Amino acid sequence: MGRSGGTEWDGGTGTHPDEARTGAAHETPEPWQAPSTRESRMLWWGSAALVLAVLGTSVLVAGEGRGGRLPLAEALVLAQVCALRWQTRAPATVLAAHAATGLTLWALLPAVTLTGALLAAQITLCVLSALRPPRTSARALAAMCAPAPLALVTGGTADLVLCLLAPALAWTLGQWRRTQRERARAELRRALAEERERLAREVHDVVAHTLSVMVVQAGAAEDVFAEQPAQARQALRAIETGARSALGELRTMLRAFRPETAEEGPAAPRHPGARLARLAELADPVRATGMTVHVHHEGILDGLPAAVDLAAYRIVQEALTNALRHAADADEVSVRVRAERDCVNITVTDNGLPGHGRSALTGGGRGLVGMRERARLLGGSLRAGPRSGGGFEVAARLPVERVS
């Protein structure tokens, strides 16, 4: 929560073993993740229906008059359909089984095209391409294309091309699906990171302000405990009040992050007390430390968009905390808020000595960084730095889109 010298900001499941074995982490930025049970079931039913309709019909037609070969061929088709049930759990194993049974089926009934006999294997290749690292699925694609020259035995060049094209299309479709899943997971991870950052800002703003006031008041109570016990008790009561207020605000904030249930009804509004209309209450704990706080506002503060209202409140809160913590020589702070139709302007200044008690922004604090981020998310700007005549100033401008 340190300060800088005049800086301005403007708005603007586990990893699959193949990845560890091959060191292909750069090929698969997202960890392997199996589809849900519902997705697996739908995939099984769809692929099973396709194999039965296409391959089953081809076997019945090609096996007419073949005597004892037809029952065995039908059994191989059923075996392929059953194996599809595990294609999302162990696609490489199922692919090998489908390739073996498909080649056996083609050997029994040469009238069935090689591409048709390997239909189940091509479906599983698509699944493997979607679920496994590209290096693994590329090896499977090469293995699927290896038997293609056999198509010349019973067919011709057209069958050969089809035997090469079908696996390539299946692999490409799987890669497309893999890309879609990776994008969805990346978007989810980004959203979670933003939510964690937002929650961290809220917790920091609530806790840091209250603790800063409590530290000053505790030090004052210790100084006057023996000679002025009444003043010490007043400081201790202020500490208790501030702690209870912060605890209540934290509870309200954390309650808003709990899932809504039918029994509890809709979650309570987040930060109901964090509003510009309560600026005076925000300044009272700082005044209790002995610092003079002047609060002046112009315009109508009620009716601001909730996001702008909260951001403005937190910026003022953090600026007061900065003055309390980092300007030990300051004894006066001025807060000015001007609400216009299209923006809210905030200026917080203190009268500390130039450069005294000021730490760099790179010192690891979150205060100015959090204020900057709040302004940026709303498309506004924030400037923070020492004033030429002494003291420190935080100035922010937040755009407003009012509902007419």
From TrEMBL:
GO terms for molecular function: ATP binding; phosphorelay sensor kinase activity; protein dimerization activity. The chain crosses the membrane at residues 42-62, 105-130, 150-173. Residues 1-14 have a biased composition (Gly residues). It is an enzyme of class 2 (transferase). It comes from the Bacteria. Its EC number is 2.7.13.3. Keywords: ATP-binding, Coiled coil, Kinase, Membrane, Nucleotide-binding, Phosphoprotein, Transferase, Transmembrane, Transmembrane helix, Two-component regulatory system. The keyword Transmembrane applies. Residues 1-37 are annotated as: Disordered. PROSITE patterns: HIS_KIN (PS50109). Residues 314-402 form the Histidine kinase domain. It catalyses: ATP + protein L-histidine = ADP + protein N-phospho-L-histidine. InterPro entries: HATPase_C_sf (IPR036890), HATPase_dom (IPR003594), His_kinase_dom (IPR005467), Sensor_HK_TwoCompSys (IPR050482), Sig_transdc_His_kin_sub3_dim/P (IPR011712). Residues 178-205 form a coiled coil. GO terms for cellular component: membrane. PANTHER family: NITRATE/NITRITE SENSOR PROTEIN NARX-RELATED, NITRATE_NITRITE SENSOR PROTEIN NARQ. This is histidine kinase. It comes from Streptomyces griseoaurantiacus M045.
